[in-house]
Design brief:
The chain is an alpha+beta fold. The chain contains 17 helices and twelve strands. It is globular and about 80 Å long.
Length: 601
């Protein structure tokens, strides 16, 4: 029997009982998505996960991608898996019907994406990179670019990537140096440079790789204002043929984890000085365009992390229900057989931690997906408010699952004890695989500065006001419950503390340099994120109590009670950590600012 890697019951709970995703049917674009259609989509995703993804997760780690004689070889399972996802319509599921898509709400699509990533993100990430690249071409590219590239990308025959990072310019895109020189009045541009750490950048499971690449047109303004976006294929289509486009792979990186998911080092125009790029949209607008893909990828990175944490949770839960060891402290009779380790309170503590982090993260990611659907397809104030909420929560949706997911998987390894450190069990692979998500699409530091330095002040803080209203509505729904009321009051108190701390930091910003204001931005991100996940858990608890009130069957009763226990765990074990973070954020002792580099010896 196939092992569990994600809870379909939890995804349906979130979609129907917490988010009421069928409300999207009131928007004409989504009117086809009733509960039956959504269930069918989730079932189809699970079938692909079970058949094409999950069985190969561990073998891809052992038979890792390799670079030989100029070819990047990936596991043979990759091609049929990508094809299955393409043929199932998942790469372009969000597209309009008349463009060959399914007009699927992102909330539903991302629930399915969580299934794919939990089954095997080493494969699934390739397909959804292609989605992001194709989205850029469709949104900003010419009709000719759309005709030449979109069908092959959506068919899964070609891979799409996002190519930004360079050896001298990681997150500092102002220092980007790849150049673009116009040929024949801009018919195409001759590209020169290097790109590193390009996920999906080259592999033999597809016929071509299409890079959405940032470069600077010669004579363009310095800094980010002079960056343009180009389509740069490995092989360019000409007269029905594929012609080598002078994009060569110098090698692939030996990574700590995700060994089946290639990260390539690319050389552009190195062999023939004939790497051709095709301008997307207007010149010098590339970074603005690329932010569309980056924001999608940030939510996607959070989903990969949450999904990996989910697979690790179910692996450790399975072990805890099978491994006998020790006896209860009250039992001194060694003639009695040992109990399963799940009988030990501290093992249940670790499992509850995993469940609280994983399901709290999934709740936030699907909540953000709903805001995304409303922002794109609703009208007027509803759409603009959803957009602001999505902007505000994106740094948290990316960073919290990525950072706390590492701790969650670590606790899962601890459940297994010494066995967790061996490759006889999948936990050590999950631990290696999840670690990179805190680095992908901007480090946690960058997202902390983004939240504190930009997102909170958008439209004079309107996003924060909207968030407060959203949280208050959940608190009010919880207050009539005797079981939930103390926690709802705890969240109110915590929110007041957050507001006080935020005001103190902005007062600091008015009198001190940005370096002082942003010195603890990463800690502020953790502080803010903890409260957001508490809100997500209170929202789930309200829905779980409603479910219990309907006298469900035993299986559903256990599900709802498990929800309420994980909710209580988060408020009892995780939310109190904000007290210490608040003390630090309000302190004027500047330890990091006062530490000179020569002290770190």
């Amino acid at each position: 029997m196939l092992e569990q890697y994600i809870s379909s019951r939890n995804l349906r709970f979130m979609l129907y009982e917490v988010l009421d995703v069928t409300q999207l049917q009131k928007i004409e674009h989504f009117e086809a998505y009733d509960r039956e259609a959504i269930d069918m989509a989730l079932d189809a995703a699970k079938q692909i996960g079970d058949q094409y993804l999950f069985p190969f997760y561990r073998v891809m780690d052992k038979e890792k991608a390799r670079y030989e004689d100029g070819v990047v070889h990936v596991h043979p399972c990759m091609k049929p898996a990508i094809q299955a996802m393409a043929e199932g319509g998942w790469i372009n599921a969000h597209e309009d019907f008349d463009a060959g898509g399914q007009q699927m709400p992102y909330t539903v699509l991302n629930a399915a994406t969580l299934i794919f990533h939990a089954a095997n993100a080493n494969i699934a990430c390739n397909a959804f990179l292609t989605t992001g690249a194709a989205n850029l071409i469709r949104t900003f590219g010419s009709a000719a670019l759309n005709e030449a590239y979109i069908p092959q990308l959506y068919s899964g025959q070609w891979q799409g990537t996002m190519a930004m990072t360079e050896p001298q310019a990681g997150s500092s895109l102002s220092d980007l140096s790849s150049s673009a020189e116009p040929v024949n009045d801009g018919e195409y541009y001759r590209i020169k440079g290097q790109k590193i750490y390009i996920s999906g950048g080259d592999h033999n499971a597809v016929d071509n790789v299409v890079h959405l690449l940032l470069a600077r047109i010669k004579g363009a303004p310095a800094g980010t204002k002079g960056i343009s976006l180009f389509v740069v294929p490995k092989f360019r289509p000409e007269n029905g043929q594929l012609v080598f486009n002078d994009v060569t792979t110098a090698g692939i990186y030996g990574k700590m984890g995700q060994k089946g998911y290639v990260a390539a080092h690319l050389m552009l125009g190195e062999q023939q000085d004939d790497c051709r790029g095709y301008l997307v949209g207007q010149a010098n607008q590339g970074l603005r365009y690329m932010f569309q893909m980056m924001n999608e990828a940030r939510i996607g990175t959070g989903m990969v992390a949450a999904a990996t944490a989910s697979a690790a949770y179910y692996a450790s839960l399975k072990y805890a229900n099978e491994r006998p060891q020790g006896r209860h402290p009250s039992n001194k009779d060694i003639s009695q057989p040992p109990v399963l380790i799940i009988e030990h309170a501290d093992v249940r503590r670790m499992l509850l931690f995993q469940k609280a982090i994983t399901e709290g993260s999934i709740a936030l990611l699907l909540q953000c997906s709903l805001y995304g659907d409303l922002a794109h397809r609703a009208q007027g104030e509803e759409a603009s408010n959803a957009h602001l909420l999505l902007e505000l929560l994106t740094p948290i949706a990316k960073s919290y699952p990525s950072e706390m997911g590492v701790q969650s998987v670590s606790q899962g390894m601890q459940v297994l004890g010494g066995a967790g450190y061996t490759d006889d069990f999948p936990l050590e692979q999950h631990y290696r695989d999840i670690r990179v998500n805190a680095i992908y699409e901007g480090t946690t530091t960058i997202h902390g500065m983004d939240l504190l330095g930009r997102k909170l002040t958008m439209e004079n803080g309107k996003g924060l006001q909207l968030l407060s209203k959203e949280m208050q509505s959940v608190i009010e729904a919880a207050l009539p419950s005797a079981r939930l009321k103390p926690y709802a009051e705890q969240l109110m108190k915590t929110g007041a503390g957050l507001q006080e701390t935020t005001m103190n930091l902005f007062q600091l910003a008015s009198t001190e340099s940005p370096e002082v204001f942003l010195a603890d931005a990463t800690l502020y991100l953790e502080y803010f994120s903890t409260m957001i996940i508490a809100w997500m858990w209170l929202k789930q608890a309200v829905a779980a109590e409603k479910g219990l009130a309907q006298n469900p069957a035993e299986g559903d009763k256990n599900f709802y009670e498990g929800k309420l226990q994980a909710f209580s765990f988060f408020f009892e074990y995780e939310l109190p950590k904000m007290v210490g973070m608040k003390i630090r954020l309000n302190s004027r002792v500047r330890v990091t600012m006062d530490t000179s580099p020569n002290m770190l010896v």
